[in-house]
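To close the section, here is one more complete example, presented without commentary so you can practise reading it yourself. The ligand is iron/sulfur cluster.
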Amino acid sequence: MSESSESSNRKWLYRKPRALSDTPMHYCPGCGHAIVHKLLAEVIDQLDIQEETVGVAPVGCAVLAYFYIRCDISEAAHGRAGAVATGIKRVLPGRIVFAYQGDGDLAAIGMGETIHAANRGENITVIFVNNAVYGMTGGQMAPTTLSGQKTVTCPQGRDPETMGPPIRMCELINTLDRPYYIARVALDGPAGVRRARKALTTAFKAQIEGRGYSFVEILSPCPIYQRCKPVEALKFVRERMAAEFPVRVFRADGKST
Amino acid sequence: MVERTLMTGNDAIGEGAIRAGCDAYYGYPITPQNELTAYMATHMPRLNRVFIQAESEIAAINMVFGSVVAGKRAMTSSSSPGISLKQEGISNLAAAELPAVIVNVMRGGPGIGNIAPSQGDYFQAVKGGGHGDYRLPVLAPSSVQESHDLTIEAFALADRYRTPVMILTDGRIGQMMEPLRLHSRPIPPPPPKPWALTGAKGRKSIFIRSLMLNDGDLEKHNIHLQAKFKKIAAAEVRFQETAIEDCDLLLVAYGTSARVAKSALEEARRNGLRVGLLRPITLWPFPSQRIAMRSSRCRAVLCVEMSAGQMVDDVRLAVNGRTPVLFEGRMGGAVPEARDVFRAIQKALAPSRKKRTP
Ligand SMILES: Cc1ncc(C[n+]2csc(CCOP(=O)(O)OP(=O)(O)O)c2C)c(N)n1
Ligand code: SF4
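Output:
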């Protein structure tokens, strides 16, 4: 029996997505980026868009995403993925373009590029991994750090009086007319992971159909700098982060929900 | 048929970019280059090409980054303060070996300065500007015609060497009108770009990066970049010489200053003074060898700039002490007057009178 017929007879319960490379990831145990990469690869497989996708990787812990996701990927300067993705999509309107960004990248240094790409209604998909800290640089305060949360640059906990409260990006982007799909999901357990996959699928489908800007915020564990064990990080995402950042679909079909 | 027209330097750059096959232009308003952004806003969409007024100069240079990553020709333009904002992006383009064209229509500085023409950004343009070890080919037009021609050249250079290229001009040339012969010869198509990110159809997926964390990788990459810069330096030096053969004094000036220097040269020649002009067209690579050769036969070299004296450092390096190097310049948006340059020439060439004590 040839190998192919053998494999076609076999019923796979689970297999690694084709769009995910075999390169071992550098992420810490329990890191949300690894999960988001896998989901992204699954969605690319499912929609069969690997050959026409061009991604933009951030400066942040996911800076090496191009080693893990098997599609064309460009680096972008810290925070500028929204602009780089715009530059790619405008000259290659037939390709599927995504930007993958952390909270420092997207909501601090890159806030301008984020808002304006959304406001222009660029037909791109933005994947926003919100882990409430700067991972790559060693656990500093992010725009999304929770009030009271301790980081190396707010060692007494974030004081909203002097540091401002955390910024809610979905809500902010939802004030703009042009975005088509805006959703927040949470990697807080198996159900949350499934919802995240669904949101990513919806976002990419919207782009494939040419409907415009789609934005998926993923509340994500970073056990190292959320300062807890991986299992507790899931709880941190579910209880503390989701209390600050409501998990829901903000806009579907171009209309606020 | 030769198409003749009358245009500003800024428009001539825009039309040059269009004729060079620029697929995408991204800009942000700043005087004195606004005519260029407006020109592109009018003409790019008409040709089904991309125009975006970006939210900032930083966004604009990173949109350029995206479009050239995708294998297309792209340009951005700004003036001094905006060019400062683009520097991280320019360093990233140089590091990732991406071809792009950046136009700086210089204005008075430092700081917000003023909107008058200046050459105060020479150091920024030719000595790095952004972080890290890189070189940037810098083309300096001194007329509307040259603004047009060098823009076309800039796209070719950028693609030939996979490098960002800067056009360094100033508010005077940008905003003045002169007759222009529009480029009408067909532009050779850009070279194939197998490195461009267009989707992994029929091939393995690829990526573009400048981050190299593995031990030794970044040094290797730097060695590769330096070898490329050496090649550019050897092959792409451009300059123009006027009345150079018999000169006792060599003027060195670029852009608007070269026009002023030329007027002073003519006045000097009328007065029997043997003055020549060497006008660098590429500021990097700099015509150092030529300046060294020419200056060795002169009594003095006089550098004219709209700055406190920036290019003069490179002239001094080229001359290497063999001939006195003098400087005449104005700052803060002021343009040197031909008669001041003429006086400086007279002074430099005056027979040295020994003071006799009675
Ligand atoms: C211009 C610039 N400023 C700062 C940095 C340093 N830096 C690298 S990653 C980063 C923040 C990363 O945090 P985030 O975007 O939240 O991503 P995470 O690492 O948490 O996934 C910073 C500030 C940089 N590389 N470039
Ligand atoms: S520091 Fe945090 S975000 Fe970065 S890899 Fe580790 S767990 Fe992930």
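Once you have examined the tokens, check your reading against these statements. The pocket of iron/sulfur cluster (ligand 2) is lined by residues A 27-28, 31, 33, 61, 131, 135, 222-225 (CB under 6 Å). Chain A has one domain: 27-256.
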